[in-house]
Design brief:
Length: 247
C-alpha cells in the first residue's frame, strides 16, 4: 500500500506524508466496510438508500444497452466499490461480476452477498468468460475491476510506471462491440455514497487484435487515473501494483 500510494501521489515511499496517506486509506476502508455490512444487514432498501445513482447514470446505461450489444461496467477499486456492485444488481439489469480467479475467504463472502442482491458472481475462468460473452450477446451487463495486478496481465503504463494489468474488459468490448462505461463510488458521509459517471468508451471496428486491445485498455486506465488522483485516500488497493520500487 505504501508503494501504491507513493506512486499515485507522486511522492517517494519514504516521504513522511505517505504514513498519513496510509492512515487515511485505512480509516476510509474501515468506514466503507461498516457502511457496506450495515446496509447489507438492513436489506435491499438500505442498499438503495445508501448508494445514490443519478438519473444521468441510469440514462447513459439505457442508451448503451439500447444499442443491443451489452454493456461493460468498470472502475478502479475505490471505497464503496462493493456497495456500488450491489447497487448495480438492483438497477434491473442482467448483471454478472467477474472477480478474482482465486478468491480468498473474504472475497467468497462478497460473492455470496452479490448473489443475494441480483449479481451473478463468477471468479474469472474460461467458463466465466464464456458466460460473460453469452450475457453480452443477449444485451446484459458485465462488471469488472481494471486496476488489479495479475501475472497474466499485459505490461501497461499506469501512473507513468509499468504494471501487469488485465485487458479482459477491452477484449470483450472489442469482440462484441460493447461500450465500456467507467463508474466510481464517492463516499459523501456515513451510509451515504453517490456514483460518479465517467466516460463511455466505444469501438465498433470489430478489430480485437492485440494492438487495438492495448489501445482501448490504456484509454480506460487513463480515465481511471483521473478518478484515483482526485481521491487517492479512497483507493483501497492493497496488492502491489508496480513491480519496481517507488524511491
Amino acid at each position: 500500500m505504501r508503494r501504491n500510494q507513493a506512486v499515485v501521489r507522486g511522492l517517494a515511499a519514504s516521504n513522511p506524508e505517505i504514513s498519513e496517506a496510509l492512515r487515511e486509506v485505512a480509516v476510509n476502508s474501515a468506514l466503507g466496510l461498516v457502511d457496506l455490512y450495515s446496509a447489507v444487514a438492513r436489506g435491499r432498501r438500505a442498499v438503495l438508500d445508501s448508494c445514490h445513482v443519478a438519473d444521468e447514470v441510469h440514462r447513459r446505461c439505457r442508451e448503451c444497452l439500447g444499442r443491443g450489444r451489452g454493456l461493460i461496467l468498470v472502475g478502479p477499486h475505490m471505497v464503496g466499490g462493493e456497495l456500488l456492485t450491489l447497487r448495480a444488481g438492483l438497477m434491473g439489469f442482467d448483471v454478472q461480476a467477474l472477480s478474482d480467479a482465486h478468491p480468498a475467504a473474504s472475497h467468497r463472502t462478497e460473492n455470496a452477498i452479490r448473489e443475494r442482491f441480483g449479481v451473478v458472481a463468477t471468479p474469472v475462468s474460461r467458463a466465466a468468460v464464456a458466460e460473460a460473452e453469452a450475457r453480452l450477446d443477449r444485451n446484459g451487463v458485465v462488471l469488472t475491476g481494471i486496476d488489479v495486478p495479475t501475472r497474466r496481465g499485459e505490461r501497461l503504463t499506469f501512473f507513468g510506471r509499468e504494471a501487469r494489468l488485465p485487458t479482459l474488459h477491452a477484449e470483450l468490448a472489442l469482440r462484441h462491440g460493447s461500450p465500456i462505461y467507467l463508474l466510481a463510488p464517492r463516499r459523501d458521509g456515513d451510509d451515504s455514497y453517490s456514483v460518479e459517471s465517467g466516460d463511455v468508451f466505444e469501438d465498433d471496428s470489430g478489430d480485437a487484435g492485440p494492438s487495438r486491445v492495448r489501445e482501448l485498455t490504456l484509454r480506460v486506465l487513463a480515465a481511471a487515473e483521473e478518478t484515483i488522483s482526485r481521491r487517492p485516500g479512497h483507493w483501497k488497493m492493497v496488492r502491489p501494483v508496480w513491480t519496481e520500487r517507488a524511491h
